[in-house]
Amino acid sequence: MTASDVEKTQAAKGGSPQDKTAPAVSTSDSGASPVKAASSEKHKEAMSHFVAGKRHLLVKDIDSAVTSLGQACELLSAEFGETAYECADAYYYYGKSLLEMARAESGVFGNALDGVPDGEDADNSQVEDPDKMTEEERENVEKEVGEALDENFKALQEKKESRDKRTKSTEGSEDESEENSEEGDDKEEEADKTEDKESKESEDKAENKESEDKAENKESEVSSSAEAEPSKDAEMKDADAKEDTESVGNDAKEGEDKKEQEAEDEEDPSNLQLAWEMLELAKVAYTNKLESLSSEEEKKPIQMKICETLLTLGEVSLENETYQQAVVDITECLNKRKELHSADSRRIAETHYQLGVALGHFNKFDEAIKSLEDAISCLKLRMENLKNKCESVDESKVNDAFYSRETEITELESLIPEIEEKIQDTKDMKKQSADNQTEEAGFKQNGEASSSSKPVSTISVKRKAEGSESSSPKKAHLQNGDAK
User: Fold this and answer.
1) CA-based, 20 to 30 A from 42: which of 156, 238, 287, 442?
2) Does the structure show a pLDDT above 80 at 423?
């Protein structure tokens, strides 16, 4: 075989031996880089936290759910971006868990007042009513109270006696100290007199040189003491200045600490505020994903998630007592669900109920009653369709192995009386609100009648008369029309 034949066979097989090594190099370049491997590990960790958080939320372990879902949101947002669609589900469940935590906290504060009598419940108090006590019970109570008063009186008398003894003992010690001090003063005066006599005699016998030396020594001592006194004064002043600066510094530090604590309190949002922010982020992420889709089949699950987010936002607003925003969010959810689901869907009935609750708190009682009645009619329609086996598919029950039409019918039958009770509560709220308005109107009329007992013209005339005395000449010219 010649060399030309070898070249032809290689060309027929698809190139030279160098060409065979090229795909091997390309395959090695297409392998996973360390950065991608690290990101995939973070993604797995985030998804494990997300799944654990959903499980904790399902079993009502709210604290663990908040912790796990918060970590999942942090990891996913760091990897994909804050408004990425991959973070939307984690945002939604994190906001939902925060809402449940806020509800649990408010429930704890509400339960703290359980058992305290309020209004008509005062008769059910555990505190005994003195009018309902028997004579024997009253006598026992009087004896116990009298004994307690006697014990307190005896204790007070003992305290007074001990105080008097202490004061007498202190006065006696003071008298003794005064006598001792007077005797000591007399002895000191006598000693001073004898010392003066001896010093006079020694001075007469001293020579002139010694007197000069003493004078010089005295002058040197005076000069040294004079120099020491300013230095002591300077040291005292420096110490006072240091104390002042230290006190000012301590006050400044305390003020800064208080300001920092207040700033931290303001920066730390509440669970409801944080839940609202997470749900808003979820809504933005879902909406951005919806805009990028074209087919209706792909859009429907995203639209359903947007509806769930809107309904949860309405619940957050209800807990936060911003009822107007709750009505807006739940109404938007209802309009979207009417387009997505059939008329007998339980999702529509749920939205009607939540809207009725929000409208009732917003003092729109007629609209609230209508919305609650629509919820009942929706459930009744589904019951009829279930009996006729022509109901719409409930997405939440598709994978439920224990689902049956009979169980759902009994469940719906138990829900309708609860909604009817809510309607009655709303009617009572409407009546109470009307009564309160009539009372306020009566108070206003009484106030206007009392204020109108004095004529308004007399008040205005008196003010003008008082002001005319202190009016300036310029104002007088303006009133007369002389000013140009």
Assistant:
1) 287
2) yes
